[in-house]
From TrEMBL, chain A:
Keywords: Cell membrane, Membrane, Transmembrane, Transmembrane helix
A molecular function (GO) term: branched-chain amino acid transmembrane transporter activity
Gene: urtC
Primary location class: membrane
InterPro entries reported for this sequence: ABC_transp_permease (IPR001851), ABC_transptr_urea_perm_UrtC (IPR017778), LivM-like (IPR043428)
TM spans (from-to): 20-40, 52-74, 80-98, 134-156, 163-181, 211-232, 262-280, 300-323, 335-355
GO CC terms, sorted: plasma membrane
UniProt keyword annotation of Membrane present: yes
Protein name: Urea ABC transporter permease subunit UrtC
Subcellular location: Cell membrane
From TrEMBL, chain B:
CDD domains: ABC_Mj1267_LivG_branched
Tagged with keyword Transport: yes
Residue intervals passing through the bilayer: none
Protein name stated in the entry: Urea ABC transporter ATP-binding protein UrtD
Alphabetical list of InterPro entries matching this protein: ABC_AA/LPS_Transport (IPR051120), ABC_transporter-like_ATP-bd (IPR003439), ABC_transptr_urea_ATP-bd_UrtD (IPR017781), BCA_ABC_TP_C (IPR032823), P-loop_NTPase (IPR027417)
Superkingdom of origin organism: Bacteria
Gene3D superfamilies for this protein: P-loop containing nucleotide triphosphate hydrolases
Keyword terms: ATP-binding, Nucleotide-binding, Transport
Gene it is expressed from: urtD
NCBIfam families the record matches: urea_trans_UrtD
Length: 367, 280
């Protein structure tokens, strides 16, 4: 009888849309990579490496959008620095991929090329363990998680809220970008990491490898969607909405909002890190540009356009915007940013609840 | 005699329900020592905002099971006093004690709430995007940690408690409605219900009948009267008819300090009180 709001919304949304999404996801997960590996390149059914990589990349973005929505849509904390956590996950796996190049680099050294260029003779201490996939997978979640923990603890304990919080997250990712631009920081400066050769012993550009990375991305998306669904419908999830809507009331009910904010903030950062870790081997490059403030703002646009505070919304938003972007940047590259700005303004004015609001309105009329 | 067979907590509970004032029983059962009959002490409390004294050497005591009304002109410091008690504002000087031993100035809001002080805000504040029943469920006493919230299931007893609270607050037929869609008066009631769900020892109500119809006000008066004895209450109100219908003792606050204290008739006859209310 005390059915949570989100469940009811899902019920109203009709199993229809959810089912369509699930079927689409499954098809994406199986049909596309299978076709990429087994269908002959001249067949009409062949999925090219370009298409598969593009979709795989968007799937990773969808996970990032979902991670942002958990803190923004559900908890009311607008982070304009989520690209940082994504990039850190990417850099962590990037270290492993750089080590995987071995002596096949330009300088034929065991060290990554940029280190040879800097005249370094040993790996810096923080590259320790970077030849082990298990270790870097740990870093993928631990580094964004720890950074989020420290940053969140300081920010939430000092009761930094609203636009101030957004601004300092933006400053954080900007500061990190400047740090990573420096060659001495030890992450390849403005070139970042690229020219990867292999992952877990497999050639990184092989169709099978691409297919597996794609499937893993879809599984990550499905897993985070299912996990988030469970989370937002738990009492924990309702406390998050309470933080968003009436933090004072929550506090005087005996809950410590700092702990709840910290929990979801760290979880979200780790999820963003995982998304970044699957993104980098697919696109084959990571550089400090991923930490640019504009990138993080774009993530917020995906979420706003799709519909924040819903679970399918941010995923939809990531697909729509990035789909449009990949078409635009080929057709009219110089107008993309104008179009993005227009999209954001239109969404804010006309679709305050995002595309999901549109879907819901349709469903409301039919029910 | 059958008394020895009773579980020990029966014995320790009885005095608090009866509003009795002696014995160490309270200390044992709740960690709150009210052995001197007072549940709240404010002593010489001062609070300034940018040099403006909102509370000026305020001293006040509330007895166990008492229903105290606090009145005073706008800006007298009533809300600020509640902020100090609930940990929202730290006093510049003075003591604030819950029972004999708990120094409230050393605790944060959530801890104070868990210790048993519930507060209703001047502007009704509920979780608008949640149903009425969910609002009450969230307020229920229990473990309020992160882990507990992940594994939380309402027990049968808690469902019954929610139903009971829905009855008390006359919101049973709206239990599935979003709290944001309730009328102003109903939100006030829901917030009072949420306070009761916390099962607090001391309730602080800041203008609980503001925006209520006369009928609703009357019901609220009944409800509050039924709570005294079991809980201690401090009610801030401007509505004198309402104060008259519930008050035993009234404290008049003006310019951050207590101006007068006594029955409503007594304070209304007080020259200084008449002056602050009518003089300006
Ligand atoms: N955070 C604050 N910063 C500055 N001044 C404040 C603050 N909070 C309260 N005040 C001032 O302190 C004084 C006491 O305010 P308070 O809200 O306690 O009065 P009140 O008795 O509750 O009045 P009302 O009956 O209007 O609710 C007022 O003059 C108010 O302007
Ligand atoms: Mg007030």
């Amino acid at each position: 009888m005390h059915q949570p709001l989100t469940l009811r919304l899902m019920a109203q949304l009709g199993p229809a849309l959810t089912r369509v999404m699930v079927v689409l996801l499954l098809m994406l997960a199986l049909a596309l990579p299978l076709s990429h590996v087994y269908v002959a390149p001249d067949s009409a059914w062949y999925v090219s490496a370009y298409t598969l990589t593009l979709l795989g990349k968007i799937v990773c973005f969808a996970v990032l959008a979902l991670a942002l929505d958990l803190v923004w849509g559900y908890t009311g904390l607008l982070s304009l620095g989520h690209g940082l956590f994504f990039a850190l996950g990417g850099y962590a796996i990037g270290m492993y991929l750089m080590r995987g190049i071995g002596r096949e680099g330009n300088y034929q050294s065991a060290l990554p090329d940029f280190m040879v260029f800097l005249d370094w003779h040993t790996l810096p201490w923080f590259w320790w363990g970077s030849d082990s996939l298990a270790w870097v997978l740990l870093l993928v979640v631990a580094v964004p998680g720890l950074l989020a923990l420290v940053f969140g603890f300081l920010a939430f304990r000092s009761r930094i809220k609203g636009v101030y919080f957004s601004i300092i997250t933006q400053a954080l990712t900007y500061a990190a970008m400047l740090l990573f631009f420096r060659n001495e920081t030890g992450f390849g400066g403005n070139n970042g990491f690229t020219d990867f050769k292999r992952i877990a012993g497999y050639a990184i550009a092989a169709p099978e490898t691409r297919a597996v990375l794609f499937v893993l991305s879809v599984l990550l998306l499905a897993g985070s969607l299912a996990g988030s669904l469970w989370l937002v419908n738990s009492r924990f999830g309702r406390i998050l909405t309470a933080v968003r809507d009436a933090e004072n009331r929550l506090m005087f009910c005996g809950y410590d909002p700092v702990r709840f904010k910290l929990a979801i903030w760290v979880l979200s950062a780790m999820l963003a890190g995982l998304a970044g870790a699957l993104y980098v081997p697919q696109v084959g490059i990571i550089n400090p540009g991923e930490m640019s403030p504009a990138n993080s703002i774009e993530v917020a646009i995906w979420v706003a356009l799709g519909g924040r505070g819903t679970l399918l919304g941010p995923i939809l938003g990531a697909f729509v915007v990035n789909g449009a972007k990949s078409w635009f940047t080929v057709a009219f590259p110089e107008y993309w940013l104008f179009f993005l700005g227009f999209l954001f303004i239109a969404a804010t004015l006309l679709l305050p609840r995002g595309l999901m609001g549109l879907v819901r309105r349709g469903e409301d009329k039919t029910s | 005699m059958s008394i020895p067979h009773l579980p020990p907590e029966i014995e320790t509970l009885t005095p608090s329900w009866a509003g009795e004032t002696s014995g160490l029983a309270h200390l044992v059962s709740t960690g709150l020592d009210t052995s001197h009959g007072q549940i709240l002490y404010l002593q010489d409390v001062c609070v300034s905002f940018d040099g403006f004294r909102a509370l000026n050497h305020l001293s006040l005591e509330i007895g166990v099971g008492e229903l105290r009304c606090v009145i005073g002109p706008n800006g007298a410091g009533k809300t600020t006093m509640m902020d100090v008690i609930t940990g929202k504002t730290r006093p510049d000087s003075g003591d604030v004690f819950f029972g004999e031993t708990i120094d409230l100035t050393r605790h944060r809001e959530a801890q104070i709430a868990r210790m048993g002080i519930g507060r209703k805000f001047q502007k009704p504040t509920v979780f608008e995007a949640m149903s009425v029943a969910d609002n009450l469920a969230l307020a229920l006493s229990g473990d309020k940690g992160v882990w507990a919230s992940l594994r939380y299931r309402l027990s049968g007893v808690q469902h019954d408690r929610i139903d009971e609270l829905l009855q008390i607050t006359r919101l049973a037929e709206f239990s599935h409605r979003l709290a944001g869609l309730l009328s102003h008066g109903q939100k006030q009631w829901l917030e009072i219900g949420m306070l009761l769900a916390q099962d607090p020892k001391l309730l602080l109500l800041d203008e609980p009948v503001a925006g209520m119809t006369d009928a609703e006000t009357e019901k609220t008066a009944e409800l509050l009267c039924s709570l005294k004895g079991r809980h201690s209450l401090m009610v801030v109100e401007h509505d004198m008819a309402f104060v008259g219908s519930i008050a035993e003792r009234v404290t008049v606050l003006a310019e951050g300090a207590v101006l007068a204290e006594g029955s409503l008739a007594q304070v209304q006859a007080d020259e200084r009180v008449i002056e602050v209310y009518l003089g300006r």
